[in-house]
Structure formats: C-alpha cells, structure tokens
Amino acid sequence: MTDAGRPNSQALDWVKGEIDETLKQAVQSLEFFVENTGDEYELASCAEALHQVIGALQLVELQGAVHYAEQMLSLLDAVRNDRVERSETIFGALMRGLLQLPAYLEYIQSGGEDLPQALLPELNELRELGGETPLTADVFFNVSLDVQPPAPEQAPTASLQALAAKVRPTYQKALVAWLRNPQDPNAIRVLLRVCELLRQATTELTDARLWWSAGGLFEGLGSGGIAADPAAKRLLTALDRQLKALAEAGAGADQEALTRSLLYRVAQAPDAGPLTQALNTAFDLAGRVPGAELIEEVGRRLHGPDTAVLHSVAVAVKEDFNRARDIIEIFGASNDGNLRDFEPLRDNLRRMADTLGMMGLNGLADAVRTQHDAVDGMINGSLEAEERRVVDVAEVLMHVNTFLLELADENQRALRVTDVIAAVPA
Fold first, then answer.
1. What's this model's pTM, rounded to 2 decimal places?
2. What is the distance between the alpha carbons of residues 67 and 193, in angstroms, rounded to a whole number?
3. What does the pLDDT read at residue 360?
4. What crossing angle do the helices spanning 40-59 and 63-80 adopt, rounded to 10°?
5. Which of 31-40, 58-67, 268-277, 416-425 has the highest mean pLDDT?
6. Which of 90, 336, 371, 377 is deepest in the core (most CB within 10 A)?
7. 3.40.190.10, 3.40.50.300, 3.30.565.10, 1.20.120.160: which CATH number matches 3-140?
C-alpha cells in the first residue's frame, strides 16, 4: 500500500474510544440474548450498535473494518428477519467478529495497514452463514483503469465482432490444451496471440485494456509467476464468455470488473515478462497487492481478542476467584456450607466458559466448563460438596486469570489452545 492509501491512525485515535464502547454494548446485547433472555430487543440493540460503528468507521475510511462490520450486520439482519435458522454457530461467529474487530483496529492504530484481504476468511464465514456467495480477494483491489493502452500498429481491417467469432474456436482449443497440460508452451503462445490480435483490432479503450490485461495473465501463467489455481481458471472461462458475447452481440459485459480481476493477478507477477512489466508500470500496480506474509501477520493479530478485552475478562475471572475463595473459607469454618452459595458461582462459570470459547481460547473454556460441571454436581447432589472440589475451582480460575493478564501484557495473539492448555491444571 502506498503512503496515500495508508489509514490515518490519528483520525482513528479520535473515534477509537467511542467505537470500543459501542462494540462493548453490542457484545453485551448479544450475550444477554443468547444466555439469558432471548429478547428480540437485545438483537435490535446489537444491530443499532453496529450501525453506529459502521458510521464511525466510514468517517475514517477504513475499508476492511467497514466491510467486517457491515457483514456482521447483514448476518444479524438475516437472523432477525428469520432468513436463516438461528444456531450457536451463527451467534458464535457474530461474537467472534465483535471481539476481533477491536483487535483489527488496534493493529491499524499501531501503524498497520487496512487490509480487507486479511479479513476474507471471517467475511466469507459470515457470508456463508447468511446464505451469501463468498468473496474473492480481487474484490478489494483498488486500481484506476484510466490508462491508455498501446495504440494498434495499424488500422483494424475487420470488426472486433468478426474477429472474435473467428478466433474463439482457436482460443477454446488452446485453452483445453493448456488445461490438460499447463506446461504446454505452444498453448500459451496461441492464447497470447489471440489476446494481442483482439487488442490490435479495436479502438475502444475498454476492450483494448481488457485484452491487454488478459495477455499479461497468460504471460504470467506461462512463466509460472501466476499460479494455475481455480481462481485463474475462472478468469480464463470469463474471457471465453467475453469472446462469446463479442462474437454474438459485438460487445462484452462487465469488462472493467474483469479487467481489474486480471490486473490483480498480473500484480502478483510483476517480473513474469515484458508484458506484465509494462502492465505493472502503466497501472502503477506495485504495492497494491499485499504479500502473503503480511496477510498472515494480520491474521495472527486478528485471531485473538485485543488487550482491553483480555483485561476485562481477566477482571471478571478474578471476581469469580474471590467468590470461590469465600466459599472455601465457609467450608473451612464449617462442614455444613449452604449449597445456595454455589449458584452464582456456577452461573458465572458457565458464562465465563462461553465467553472464553467465543474468544477462541477453547482450552481455557474447556477447563472452566469442567469446573462448572463440578459445581453443578455439588448443587444437585450428584457430587459430594467437599472443600477440595472448591479448591480445584479456585486454582483453575487463578490460572485462567494469570494467563489472560500475561496474554494481554505480552500481546501474544497467535497463541492457540495447544499453547495454553498446559497453563491449566488437569
């Protein structure tokens, strides 16, 4: 990303506090709906909070964050209007989004780039749950097409429509040969020649840019600079559809969208050959496609709650630890403690386990859930109410509290359940 495209972290500073508070309200509303009330008003409150967040994010022009919040709101609207069946999976995805968005903003606030491409797994999970088709990374590829392609070497002698009808069988035959053997250099040469003929045969800039860019795709595929993956093959099919439309109607459809998709792949292979080099220079493609390592780094930062959330949960865990300690003292003074004293602790343990699970800390969530079951067993009489059981609860809560604080202080968002389970006693 160029400096001109880098987000204004100072502008984000002005609204970040308000966004964080509004997202906390959204989290609380969703939690109240799922865990306690089932009250539709809570879902409406969550939606209203997301509306406010989207407005603030649009103000500071954070494309990725806006898309993430809008996709959460879209799924929430689908839930509220019964367009999808309500499920734990949907509410879990919404809660993760509400908890991850502050982490994404914190990354940008610290000087990182706004990279919608890094959010694709989360966006597409929300879209799939809402019954929408998945997005591809080129949707977020922002490039101006106001570029003059090379002029034809001589005036066209035939119409583009007539040429398209003539060369389409050749294109299809070469395409089939390449699909069967991507190392076939002759197939690539033929496909490149078809693109060049079509570019030379038109004075329409939109068509010329399209076939110029298509030539760059084939050059990159031939050199290996562009992977012959399903996305590339979909572009080849789209080019055939363009040829069909040109041959039958004299004009294609959605040329600009297809040209951007082609240039997105060309930008990934800037040195594949003279044609891709010329396209990268003409359209100023350098730095417009983030590298895989950068996207992975953003993903690591994203796939864990931000520091404020971790501290907040740690405080709640500490309060439950103090409650367990009080119960231990009761048992220490008497062997006949009131089992009703356990009920607030049991309920809090359940909520805590759900919250930790939604944050992706599944190992900690399972450990807390085990203690919830133990406390519940003491209340309903299936387990004997012994001091050692309450001591176990307190020890787990202390370990969870310590780990969350360390995780927040060290900002180790990449840790997953395999890294954390060792911190919890069996």
1. 0.64
2. 40
3. 65
4. 160
5. 58-67
6. 371
7. 1.20.120.160
